[in-house]
Amino acid sequence: MTSRLPIAAETPTPSSCCPTRPRLRGKAVKQFASLFKGLADETRLEILGLLAAAQGEVCACHIEEHIKHLSQPTISHHLKLLREEGLVTGERRGTWVYYTLDKSLLSRVKQFVEAIRE
Amino acid sequence: MTSRLPIAAETPTPSSCCPTRPRLRGKAVKQFASLFKGLADETRLEILGLLAAAQGEVCACHIEEHIKHLSQPTISHHLKLLREEGLVTGERRGTWVYYTLDKSLLSRVKQFVEAIRE
DNA sequence: TATCTATATTGACAAACATCGATTCAAGGT
DNA sequence: ACCTTGAATCGATGTTTGTCAATATAGATA
């Protein structure tokens, strides 16, 4: 009977190791998950990297030109997802559509850093 | 012939609107996409939020306790993905396995912010 | 050894996603 | 009107992903 203490004699209790309130809850979890889903694709990151470097508008034709290994419909599809997620905006002028990085991208990512860091 | 200039008379040329070098390329794109895939799930974000708030170890049993709407194998699966992505570390002590948030999470996210911001 | 508990693994399945070819839509030029 | 070009949409397809029930593994206790 209890000749020696096991490595972890005590069952871990919530009071011993668990936070009362997690740092990501409810709506925030959904919003960040949605944001990161938008960022969780190589093609979309390439597009964002292009727009960030341009510091302004880039027309869809140039985006397609840079991402040469994918078809036009595929890139259009990714642009749509980025628009819906609010990470870019697209404006049609004449024949062309010009895309711009939305500032909300950086602010939302920074919000995540703050939420985790507390 | 050319009675008046159309809204966008000139075809957008790379030199007019395109950056010479995008801000996310090659390996960096892959690494960030992999990171964001790890973050692109509500359950995994909840787990990370728990670990962040705990500021230390949390045993798997408490994680499962907090995320009550999912089965134990499902949570174990997410913990595995987080481990493989280097976002958490797990250490077995006796019967229990204790998880900790890896510091690399914040640094990697901040790297992304810097890359986009230039 | 046998047994109990905590965690991980396996196998199956449905839903979500990335991709493409074909088509459509929008706008300008002839 | 017609044609041309840039971009979006549609429909189909193969892959990835989240989930669970069942089972296996690791470690402690008896």
With strands numbered from the N-terminus, the spatial order across the biggest sheet of chain A is 1-3-2
Number of helices of chain A: 6
Strand content of chain A: 5-15%
Biggest sheet layout of chain A: 3 strands, antiparallel
Q: Quickly give the structural class of chain A.
A: mainly alpha
Helix content of chain A: 55-70%
Give the largest chain-chain interface (CB within 8 Å).
A-B, 56 and 56 residues
Please give the domain count of chain A: 1
H-E order of chain A: HHHEHHEEH
Radius of gyration of chain A: 22 Å
Kindly provide the name of the CATH class of chain A: Mainly Alpha
Q: What's the β-strand tally of chain A?
A: 3
CATH superfamily of chain A: Winged helix-like DNA-binding domain superfamily/Winged helix DNA-binding domain
Question: How is the quaternary structure best described?
Answer: homodimer
CATH topology of chain A: Arc Repressor Mutant, subunit A
Query: What is the overall shape of chain A?
Result: elongated
What's the helix and strand layout?
2 copies of one chain form a homodimer.
Chain A: H1 14-17, H2 26-39, H3 42-54, E1 58-59, H4 60-66, H5 72-84, E2 88-93, E3 96-101, H6 104-117
Antiparallel strand pairs in A: 1-3, 2-3
Chain A binds a DNA duplex (30 and 30 nucleotides) through helix 4 and helix 5.
Description:
The structure is a homodimer of 118-residue chains. Chain A has a 3-stranded antiparallel sheet with strand order 1-3-2. Chain A has a single domain (25-117), classed as Winged helix-like DNA-binding domain superfamily/Winged helix DNA-binding domain (Arc Repressor Mutant, subunit A). Chain A contains 6 helices and 3 strands. The longest helix of chain A has 14 residues, at 26-39. Chain A is elongated and about 65 Å long. In chain A, 34% of the residues are buried. Chain A has helices at 14-17, 26-39, 42-54, 60-66, 72-84, 104-117; strands spanning 58-59, 88-93, 96-101. Chain A is mainly alpha-helical and 118 residues long. At the A-B interface, helix 2, helix 3, strand 1, helix 4 and strand 3 of A face helix 2, helix 3, strand 1, helix 4 and strand 3 of B. The first copy, chain A, binds a DNA duplex (30 and 30 nucleotides) through residues 1, 6-8, 41, 43, 59-61, 64, 70-80, 92, 94-97.
